[in-house]
Structures are given as C-alpha cells and as structure tokens.
Amino acid sequence: MDKSNVVPWLFVISHGRFGNELVNSCEMILGKIENIYCFSLMPGMAPEQLMKEMSEVLKRAPTHSIIFTDIYAGTPSNVATVFAKRKGFPVICGMNLPMLIEAEMYRNELNIEELVNRIIEAGGESIKNVTSIANGNTYE
After folding, report:
1. Which among 10, 68, 97, 113 is placed 20 to 30 Å from 19, CA to CA?
2. pTM for the full model?
3. Which parts of the sequence belong to the PTS EIIA type-4 domain (predicted)?
C-alpha cells in the first residue's frame, strides 16, 4: 500500500492529560475522530518511556501524518522531533482546539503543506483579546 496517498493520522502529545482532553473537546464538536492518537507525558515519566509508547503506532502511520505538541522545546516536543527526523512527520507546537478542528476538517482535502499552513493559521487567528473587541477597539 502506498502510504503517501492515505489521509494523515493525527498525533497529540502533551504534558499530562491536556491532549486527551483537547481531543475529547474536539470530538464533542465534530463527532468521533478516526486515526487520532494521544500520548501523555505523566509526572516522573522518562522521555524514553514516552518514545517507546509512541513507537509502535508511529511505525504504522501513513507518510505525512501530523504530530501536535503543547509547548515548543518541552519534552513532548523534543520526543516528537526525533520522530520528525526519522519519519519526516511535521510537528506543530502550541496546539489549541481550533488547530485540531481545522486538521480534522481538512486532512482529507489538502496536501500536507497546505494542511500544516492552514492549521498554524487557524491557531494564530483564534487568539483574540475579546475585551478589546467588545469595547469596540480595533484588533490587529
């Protein structure tokens, strides 16, 4: 099977259960999401243990699957970088709910470069100073 034409899988890696809850919230909005996998770095867990837990699933993942992490240069991000180098998966740090929604809505339609750009754009555009907007101030 040519894995390059398969819809990319989504991987969510976070400190604690943040990623799991983010996916739960995404599914509350969109319904059940197929081929999304969460991995949690729990207190006292070594990076090697996280890497081991991820290895088997990532081995089966289609080319260009996407890895989301919570904080750039944190342990989940550093572990994801190892897989990015080995498998060429894009890694997107600073994940938020709009990013996951965008990924799920468009991963069947866009090529990987367009999808990654759209995800990052959605994440940035979702950050607003609502108080400023509510007070009629221009927001840029």
Report:
1. 113
2. 0.91
3. 7-127
